[in-house]
Structure formats: C-alpha cells, structure tokens
Write a structure and sequence with these properties.
- It is found in: Mitochondrion.
- This is Citrate synthase.
- Belongs to the citrate synthase family.
- It holds the Pfam family Citrate_synt.
- It is a single chain.
- The protein is an all-alpha fold.
- Among the domains are: 132-305 and 427-451, Citrate Synthase, domain 1 (Orthogonal Bundle), CATH 1.10.580; 310-420, Cytochrome P450-Terp, domain 2 (Cytochrome p450-Terp, domain 2).
- The protein is built from 22 helices and two strands.
- It has a two-stranded antiparallel sheet.
- The termini are far apart.
- The structure holds carboxymethyldethia coenzyme *A (CMX).
- Carboxymethyldethia coenzyme *A (CMX) is lined by residues 275, 306-308, 310, 342, 347-354, 402-405, 409, 411.
Length: 472
C-alpha cells in the first residue's frame, strides 16, 4: 500500500528549527553530556564476552561499536531511531505533489537519522531545497574524470573514484590542513561535506548511467525545484518532464518509478553499524579522513557480491533461471535449479543475512510496492519468479542446512523492480544502493565527530595467541 499521510511535528523539540544544522546543534549539548557521563561512570560495565569463535568468524555477535541512529533486531529487522519501516511510512513526510499518496522522502529519513526526530513538512521541504541547491553542480574536475573513465569500468568503481576525487572539495580537509579548527568544531565542517556529498549523488549517478547507455550524453536535467529522488530518476532519463524519457513512460508509471526510488533509497540508508559499507565509512572516518574519502571506501565495500552487489547478482540469477526453466510457476524446476547452484558450492544471491533471522522487512516493503500495483507487475515473469522464489528458496536452503537465515534479504527484490521499469544495466543497479547508503553512515560520521569518538583500533590476535588462550 502507498503511504498513509499523517501530519507530524517534531516530537522532542519544543521549538521548530527549519535548518537541519541548527536542529543538530540544538541536540548536541544533551547528547554530549549523556555520553560523557556514561563514559565517566560506566566504562567498566561489560557488554559481552568475545569468544575465539567470534574472532574466527568475522566478529559475529561482537558488540563493540557505537551507532547513533539505527539498530538491527535479528527478528524484527531495522529500526531508525526506534521506528520501524511501517512507522516511517506513516510518519515521515513525502513529496508535496503526491498529496500524501506517495512514499516518504529520503530527505525526511535523513532528518530523522541526523536528529532523532520526525521532521515536520516544512523541515523536510527545507532540506529538499537545501540539497537541491547544494547538488545543482558537479565539480568540473569530477565530471571530466568520469568522462575519461573506460565505459566498461564497473559503475561502482566509477562511483568510488568520483567520490574520492571530491576530496579536493572537502571543507573539512581544507580547514584541518590550515590548522584553523579545534576538535569541538570538526563536526560543522564534516556536516558541510556530508550534505554536499549527498546532494551531488544524483548528478554522479546520472553521469555514470549516461556513460553506460547514452555515450555520456545527459538523459535529463537537474531540477532545483524537485526532490533528491526525482532528480535521480530524471538524470536516469525516467521522468516525463526534465528528461528524455528513454522508455516513453506514461506520467503515472514515471511517477511510480520516482516513488520506487524514494522507497528504495528511504529504506536502504542504514542497517546499523556493523555492515561492511557502514563500518568501513566509520572506520576510515575515524582517522579523520574527510567524508568523501570515507564514503568512497564504504562504496568499495558495498561493491562486494556478499554485500550490496548482491542486488546485481540477483537480477543476473533471475534472468538465467527464467531461461533455464519452462515456467516460473514450475516449482520442481525452480527447486532443481537452486540445488544445482548449491551443489556447485555457490550462494543463492538475495538470501541469508549475517544478523537477521527472519525475512527482511525491507524485502516486504519492496514486495508491498508490487502488490499495490498488481496490473503493472502481473505480466513480468521475472518479478513473478522473484515472488515465487521467496517461498521456494527458504525451503531448499533449510534442507541444505548451512544458512542460518534462509529468508530473502532486501537485495532479492530491489534490482528486478528497477529492471522492470527499464534500468536493465545489471552492473549499474548497486549505484542506486550507493546513493541511499550514504545517508546512514555519513550521519554517523557527523555524530562521531560531535561526540569525539576516537580513532578505531581493535586488537588482533595471531595463531599462537589464540592457541595460548585455548590452552592448546
Ligand atoms: N546461499 C547459499 N549458502 C549460503 C547462503 C546463501 N544465500 N547464505 C549463507 N550461506 C552459507 C554460507 O556461505 C556459509 O557457508 P560455509 O559454512 O561453507 O562458509 C553458511 O551458509 C553459514 O553462513 P551464515 O552464517 O548463515 O551467513 P554469514 O553471516 O556467513 O553470511 C551473507 C551472510 C549475507 C554473506 C550470506 O547469507 C550470503 O552469502 N548470502 C548471499 C549473498 C547476499 O544476498 N548478500 C546480501 C546481504 C544483504 C546486504 O548486505 O546487502
């Protein structure tokens, strides 16, 4: 179902601050004081025991990172400052032109991540406008660099390179080099970089996509009056106004695509701190590398097939499976295909999770998007296969007996929905994930500097230390 609109107001703040930076500044004294008090009085409280098993299995269950905005419950899924996806769909403001019928704006989510508060309509609009103003121009050196990259370079590599190149624009790096700022002020410059980085992502994304499909010629233009997701859609050539409308979408289908981007980007922003892209951004940022370098590193992690690239792999998988089976309704043939993959010691992309132990609520949200538009999706065999698979694959994976979570994760559905509307460049799909994921880890980076979280430096163990601990 589409979003049920609820008029909201800031739940903690008694006064309304329309500017995000001012709202963050307002929240700082209380948060700093709280954390300082906890550090001073409770530093000896035990969080848990780290086992040799945890050391040897990618630090599973090792609770050792502070993360402000999101927590992941193995059974319930993600919460954004305590709110579920369904809460966010009810409470976060959407685009004014949707009159309460569309998805919430990722900008509204960004406000929630950064402040812990549900933004009012006005606050959300203000942030949309601020991002549009900041994102109107891509630095010319980054634009030239992107133009010069080989067309067949993976789009995620192009995204990482573009972001790293913007380190030249970093206000934080400049101020730090000048020696003109003290620790307490770092966050203000990190914030400026973070907002500038998020703002320019639609442009980078559009540029990478146009290189892939249109010889680098723009497919649309950036409209400063419109929201961040709309501009992503336009620059992909998917809107009726502001773009060449590559697939001749009707107004309604184009609006649906814009809302798909809003939904997708709104719920992919963060998945607490331990996932590879978020953790990498936080780790690199802890060395005071600026947000461009930090998030460029996060993107390189997101580009791994066990993480974000699974979205691309799922589409490839569905395309291949559809060709292999007589009918996507043929359960026996689908099962046989899955066994063939498992028996050749490969993973089924889009299934399993390091933390979740139930179906991913983000997957359900993407599925709901299709259920709300039955006519749109009913004749797409790949979308039907994706849905059938979500019932068949858990049974097969359970029988296989290795995977701790046999259920679909978010990557199961997302790519194939973009593909449905015409984004058929498989390698490109994860770039849209990269747009969304910026919001969570980079909000954390702002708070890391506000709270003075130090450089991250866990202790490693060599084999002889482990043997000694095990008394071997
Ligand atoms: N298909 C086949 N085997 C799988 C599997 C899957 N989808 N998921 C896990 N397994 C296997 C693991 O490879 C592991 O095998 P070994 O013991 O031989 O090493 C075993 O089951 C146990 O793994 P686990 O503890 O259940 O899962 P992990 O925490 O190690 O890994 C994840 C989690 C996501 C990497 C894994 O489930 C996977 O590879 N899934 C497929 C790729 C994917 O969809 N990734 C996207 C995740 C979401 C995201 O980050 O975007």
């Amino acid at each position: 179902m589409l979003r049920h609109f609820t008029q909201t107001r800031s739940i903690h703040s008694t006064r309304t601050l329309f500017n995000l930076k001012a709202a963050i500044a307002d929240a700082i004294p209380k948060r700093r004081e709280e954390l300082l008090r906890i550090k001073k009085n409770f530093s000896d409280v035990k969080v848990g025991d780290i086992t040799v098993g945890s050391v040897l299995t990618g630090m599973r269950g090792n609770q050792s990172m502070y993360w402000e905005s999101t927590t992941l419950d193995p059974n319930e899924g993600i919460r954004f400052h305590g709110r579920t996806i369904a809460d966010c769909q009810k409470m976060l403001p959407g685009a004014p032109e949707d009159n309460g019928d569309g998805e919430f704006l990722p900008e509204s989510m960004l406000w929630l991540l950064m402040t812990g508060e549900i933004p009012t309509e006005e606050q959300s609009r203000q942030l949309t406008q601020e991002l549009a103003e900041r994102g109107a121009k891509l630095p010319s050196h980054t634009e030239k660099l992107l133009t010069s990259l080989p067309r067949d370079m993976h789009p995620m590599t192009q995204l990482a390179i573009a972001l790293a190149s913007m380190n030249k624009e970093s206000i934080f790096a400049k101020k730090y080099e000048e020696g003109s700022i003290g620790k307490k002020d770092y966050w203000e410059y990190i914030y400026e970089d973070v907002l500038n980085l998020i703002a320019v992502l639609p442009r980078i994304t559009g540029k990478i996509y146009s290189s892939l499909v249109n010889d680098g010629e723009p497919l649309g233009h950036f409209n400063v009056e419109k929201d961040w997701s709309y501009n992503i859609a336009s620059l992909l050539g998917m809107t009726v106004r502001d773009s060449v409308n590559v697939h001749s979408l009707t107004k309604e289908r184009s609006n649906d695509f814009v809302n798909l981007i809003r939904l997708y980007c709104g719920i992919h922003v963060d998945h607490e701190g331990g996932n590879v892209s978020a953790h990498t951004t936080h780790l690199v940022g802890s060395a005071l590398s600026d947000p461009y370098l930090s998030y460029s590193s996060g993107i390189m992690g997101l580009a791994g097939p066990l993480h974000g690239l699974a979205a691309q792999e799922v589409v490839r998988f569905l395309v291949e499976m559809e060709n292999d089976v007589d009918s996507v309704e043929n359960v026996k043939q689908v099962e046989d295909y899955l066994w063939k993959v498992l028996n050749s010691n490969r993973v089924i992309p889009g299934y399993g999770h390091a933390v979740l132990r139930k179906p991913d609520p983000r997957f359900d949200a993407m599925l709901n998007f299709t259920e709300a538009r039955p006519q749109e999706f009913k004749s797409n065999a790949k979308v039907q296969l994706m849905k059938n698979l979500s019932k068949i694959a858990p049974r097969v994976l359970q029988k296989h007996g290795k995977t701790k979570n046999p259920y679909p994760n978010v990557d199961s559905a997302s790519g194939i929905l973009f593909h449905h509307y015409g984004i058929d460049q498989l390698l490109f799909i994860t770039v849209i994930f990269g747009c969304s994921r910026a919001m969570g880890p980079l909000s954390q980076l702002v708070w890391d500097r506000i709270l003075g979280i130090p450089i991250e430096r866990p202790k490693s163990l060599d084999l002889s230390s482990i043997k000694k601990l095990c008394k071997i």
